[in-house]
Amino acid sequence: MQPLLADSTLAPDQMAIIESGNAFQRLLRMRKSSSLFRLQTAEEVLGRLAFHNTGPEQIPGLIAMSLSDVGQANNLDPETDMILVLFNASPTEQIYDLPAELAEVDFALHPEQALLSDSTLSGEAVGGVVRLRPVRRRCWWLRKAGSLWLMKR
Q1: How many Cα neighbours within 13 Å face the side chain of 15?
Q2: Each residue of 8-40: pLDDT tens digit?
Q3: Which residue has the higher pLDDT, 1 or 76?
Q4: Which residue stretches of the chain are H helix?
Q5: CB 60 within 8 A of CB 47
Q6: Antiparallel, parallel or unpaired: β 129-132 and 108-109
Q7: For position 147, what pLDDT does the model report?
Q8: d(Cα 77, Cα 14) in Å, to the nearest integer?
Q9: Could you tell me the pTM of the whole model?
Q10: Where do the domains of the chain lie, and which CATH numbers do they carry?
Q11: What is the C-alpha to C-alpha distance for residues 119 and 142, in angstroms, rounded to an integer?
């Protein structure tokens, strides 16, 4: 890491610094958008967080997790039933078959990500299959409480 930090040709310009600040602010707004992102106890984490791309058939470089209010006595977020978060750390597009318990759920891209002008940030979560186009990125999909929340993708 030290050689990279010493390389002056890798220094960010003003636009890169501004874009990084904007991206960080966007992540903070996304985190603030749901109490499911701010679980307070180990019990809440164990009861609401699930990892889906696991086991011998897992796709390398892809983390698929969900945060859920479904079936919980204490509804932390009355606006959102479930959040599906995917991290694609690979250099290629990933296609992921959702597990059976999520396959029938229609998700919509988080509004903060849906509004981005970055055309590489796109994905679909339809019919039990997730196609994650951005490489080395993350996407968050939401299912609104009590109904499907459909957004143009």
Answers
A1: 0
A2: 888 888 998 998 898 889 888 988 988 999 999
A3: 76
A4: 2-6, 14-32, 42-48, 100-103, 111-114
A5: no
A6: unpaired
A7: 34
A8: 38
A9: 0.73
A10: 2-144 (2.60.40.1180)
A11: 20
